[in-house]
Q: What sequence folds into this?
């Protein structure tokens, strides 16, 4: 019987201690607290024209060995390195262009080749990968003949 009485007495005391917390939660919309929102959508994939212009500038840097072309190659590659939608392989190529596009005393083969290789692979490696199209279920009938192995719809 004492437990029942003490439980009844403890209930209102517990409610009184929780009341300030409930009041704080209720006042959040009034105080201007923003509601929870979904994460922002990532920026769009860079257009292929950006990669093509970087490719041409990097090749010019390799060929001419001038500060103007090399500085421009580094400045075009730098913001692309921070782009969240580019794959790591693309960022590796961009990093190579950024690090190697420096003016040297001698425009040797050893200087030009890494820049040229990275510039040539840039448009292929940094191309946006579109999801593969799935064949329609009502597609054309499969030809009869051959081994006629179990198809994806047959179990």
A:
């Amino acid at each position: 019987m004492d437990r029942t009485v003490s439980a009844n007495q403890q209930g209102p005391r517990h409610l009184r201690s929780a009341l300030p917390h409930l009041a704080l939660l209720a006042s959040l919309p009034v105080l201007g607290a923003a509601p929870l929102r979904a994460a922002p959508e990532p920026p769009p994939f860079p257009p292929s024209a950006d990669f093509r212009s970087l490719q041409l500038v990097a090749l010019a840097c390799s060929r001419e060995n001038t500060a103007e072309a090399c500085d421009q190659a580094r400045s075009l590659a730098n913001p692309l390195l921070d782009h969240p939608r580019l794959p790591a392989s693309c960022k590796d190529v961009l990093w190579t262009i950024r690090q190697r596009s420096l003016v040297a005393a001698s425009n040797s083969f050893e200087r030009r080749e890494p820049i040229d290789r990275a510039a040539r692979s840039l448009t292929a490696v940094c191309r946006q990968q579109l999801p593969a199209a799935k064949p329609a279920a009502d597609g054309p009938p499969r030809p009869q003949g051959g081994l006629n192995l179990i198809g994806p719809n047959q179990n």
